[in-house]
Amino acid sequence: MSFCRSARAGGRAALGSNGNYNVRHVASDHGALLDSSHRRLGRNPLEIDMKNNYASALSASERVAWKLDDVFNQDAVLDFSQPFLPETLVDSAPLTWLSATERRTLNQIRAHGYLSIFGLVEEFILPFVMQRLQARASAEMPERRALLGFAAEEAKHIELFQRFKTVFRKGFGHACDVMGPASDIQAHVLAHSELSVGLLVLHIEWMTQWHYVEMVRDDGELEPNFRRLLHEHWKEESQHARIDGFIVEALAEAATEQERERAFREYLSLLAFLDAGLKQQVVFDRSAFERATRRALSDAEAAQFMRVQQQAQRRTYLGSGVNHPQLRATVERIYPQGARALRESSELYG
What is the CATH number of domain 50-349? Predict the structure, then answer.
């Protein structure tokens, strides 16, 4: 399928000399929001006391829960004199021909795309969780409540990102297109095996953790309302990473070796599918940049913009996941033969 136009709509991590993120194990930074089951690699990881783990995740979710109006109400105002995203994610530095104002404009366009793409993936995560809840209708109550809460929070996040886009459009003053439509992406992803979708969701959840902990949390130069939105989103996604980890472990335990291999291969194909969408997103971002700045890029500038920004998008959404130590540990547990393919994906996606 193709990706068409949708409705118009410095942190601590650094880039190494090869353009990849310098990876640090960030799990310990999440403190009480993480469960130790993700780190128990010395025992059979598929032998998990699911009841206690779900109860723990449920308890933590209730402690960090928030209401939409308390985080980003309809009257929120964004300060467009400030950057929204860390430069590590935007990677505008190689575009030396940008003025300071143009660099900030690109940063804000990328921020709009960042939350819009989160909204797109939440659209397939929500039915994935609901399907899991239906399949586990006779499970222990803590598991059912945790899954129900997971789904409710994903729906809340979709509305949060829609609110942001409305406020952004009002303040930015120019249209920013986004890859999609969401319904096509959802249909394509959910046509794959449940375990492969679970792996993709886990990839996204750990990616979200990495971005916030390593790049956003300590960056005091970011627009404060946007930064707070990311903070609140991160708190709930911390529990989603735990719960989806439980789902993946349970699905893998019930699967045959052949089914695990198939799921891993499908996960890689889904990354390639998203990579194609991100390439289209760069085209949209260039168009938005030229509209907002009233500047037509030269052929050389346009070529560099496309090259640099495509790799930046890959690192943001794909490299951050395949390089995350928790995602890699999960793959090594459920399908050890996939470790080499993950390393190869790391070289491709950054």
Answer: 1.10.620.20
